[in-house]
Amino acid sequence: MFRRLDHVGIVVHDLEASIQTYCQQLGFTLLSRVSIPEQLVEAAFLDGGNSTIELIAPTDTTSGTARFLANRGEGTHHVCYEVDDIEAALKTLQERGLRLIDETPRRGVHGLVAFVHPKAAHGVMIELLQKDSHAH
Ligand SMILES: C[C@H](C(=O)O)C(=O)SCCNC(=O)CCNC(=O)[C@H](O)C(C)(C)COP(=O)(O)OP(=O)(O)OC[C@H]1O[C@@H](n2cnc3c(N)ncnc32)[C@H](O)[C@@H]1OP(=O)(O)O
Ligand SMILES: [Co+2]
């Protein structure tokens, strides 16, 4: 089903401060910074050596990530796996009775994405990603 781990998403209060911590103290390298208005978040992708993390900060107080921060505080928010065919993966997961957040994919930063509900995977939200052919 899953091809590989793509990234781990971490929700933070202050994107700039978290980039500083991860780059200057933990030795990660900044890959890109993106604004995702549809999700009401700003994010940064960082390379940690055969691993990528996505730091995410809400840009408003009503989003899911803002609620996550208020209720649970900063921390691991989702684990993203790359799939070859996201429509097929969603169909398979649905047939297996898994609770999805998105029944159809939406456009993400690096391709099509869809989320599996955290309650369906023992407290971990799973993001599926079908990369655009030109994305790295
Ligand atoms: C760009 C980037 C990317 O592409 O990677 C992104 O999209 S990041 C942008 C973020 N986008 C998303 O998160 C989209 C998908 N998320 C959502 O639709 C929502 O946040 C949601 C359905 C997971 C939860 O929203 P909700 O309104 O149903 O309810 P609540 O916020 O009250 O949460 C319901 C229960 O789920 C738990 N819960 C919520 N979020 C998480 C999470 N990330 N990991 C683990 N548990 C979680 C809460 O603590 C609560 O548990 P209890 O009941 O036990 O207290
Ligand atoms: Co993500």
From TrEMBL:
**PROSITE patterns linked:** VOC (PS51819)
> Where does the VOC domain start and stop, copy by copy?
4-131
Q: Which NCBIfam families does the record match to this protein?
A: metmalonyl_epim
UniProt-recorded Gene Ontology molecular function terms: metal ion binding; methylmalonyl-CoA epimerase activity
Matching InterPro entries: Glyas_Bleomycin-R_OHBP_Dase, MeMalonyl-CoA_epimerase, MMCE/EMCE_epimerase, VOC_core
Establish whether keyword Metal-binding is in the entry.
yes
Keywords, comma-separated and alphabetical? Isomerase, Metal-binding
What gene does the UniProt entry assign to this protein?
mce
Q: What is its EC number?
A: 5.1.99.1
Gene Ontology biological-process entries: L-methylmalonyl-CoA metabolic process
Sequence similarity = Belongs to the methylmalonyl-CoA epimerase family.
Q: What is this protein called?
A: Methylmalonyl-CoA epimerase
Tell me yes or no: is Isomerase among this UniProt entry's keywords: yes
